[in-house]
Design brief:
This protein has about 230 residues and is α+β, with helices and mostly antiparallel strands. Helices cover about 30% and strands about 35% of the residues. Strands 8, 9, 10, 11, 12, 13 and 14 form a seven-stranded antiparallel sheet that branches. The chain has a five-stranded antiparallel sheet with strand order 1-2-3-7-6. Strands 4-5 form a two-stranded antiparallel ribbon. Bound molecules: uridine-5'-diphosphate.
């Protein structure tokens, strides 16, 4: 399988067509952005780490009954995926208060939530991905009720599986972002799952092991990404 034409370049990935019209290749880059891309940088080796971590987590989720766009890892930076039409929503699940939720509601980071907080953000950079609810989604015709039910059910399944997986590895899954796509009339999990899209804290010390090291200039960024890869693959 080979890349034919680049059809999209995002902040952290490029997307290519292949000789098979139902299959795309996503290439993971080392570029890092934060705060609506006002902060930019490079995390050397990040693309390789995120490709390998996403591969492992998509495989795990498939086993748990979550359909994903993952087909296979082709090499260090490239993953073959099913062609989907991305639903323009960023779904976030939160187990511990951090980041956007702490800011929005004036809460301390680190408060453990009694039950997960489930959010939709409209995936639209020019509007800064605003927080929206089911009726906004309906009004904007971003997804049907049936699709939203599936997205919610799958998101909770992902949270249960990943919380358990990371917990066994001495990491707390604080929060994460998911994107879904339509593939032959079915909703499946797309995009990536990596330290770029999850907050992971070492249990006890609460050491941040994710993109907050870049966002907040905490140092040891490359080393921490490599450490998470090792933990995930162990
Ligand atoms: N997130 C992401 N992409 C985004 C926004 C958020 O992957 O465009 C992830 C982020 O890494 C975190 C979770 O979603 O794990 C919740 O992010 P939050 O809403 O707190 O926003 P942030 O503080 O990252 O701006």
């Amino acid at each position: 399988m080979k890349k034919i034409k680049q059809i999209y370049e995002g902040k952290a990935k490029k997307l290519f067509t292949t000789e098979n019209e139902d299959i795309y290749i996503q290439e993971f880059k080392d570029d890092a952005t934060a705060f609506d891309a006002t902060k930019r940088g490079t995390i050397h080796g990040k693309g390789v780490v995120n490709n390998k971590i996403s591969t492992k987590l998509f495989q795990l989720l498939e086993k748990e009954g979550v359909p994903t766009h993952f087909i296979e890892m082709l090499n260090d930076r490239d993953m073959a995926v099913k062609r989907v039409e991305i639903v323009p929503l960023e779904v976030t699940m939160r187990n511990i208060v951090a980041g956007g939720m702490a800011k929005l509601l004036g809460l301390e980071e680190g408060i453990i939530l009694d039950e997960p907080v489930y959010e939709y953000h409209y995936k639209e950079d020019s509007l800064h991905d605003p927080l929206i609810n089911n009726s906004h989604i309906k009004a904007l015709k971003l997804a049907t009720d049936e699709e939203l039910n599936t997205i919610k059910e799958l998101s909770y399944k992902v949270n249960d599986a990943l919380k358990e997986f990371f917990s066994q590895k001495n990491l707390d899954l604080v929060d994460f972002k998911l994107e879904f796509g339509r593939c032959k009339g079915k909703i499946i999990l797309a995009d990536e799952i990596s330290p770029d899209t999850c907050r992971l804290w070492e249990k006890g010390s609460k050491r941040k092991m994710d993109k907050d090291r870049f966002r907040r200039d905490l140092g040891n960024i490359e080393e921490t990404y490599q450490e998470v890869l090792k933990i995930v693959l162990d």
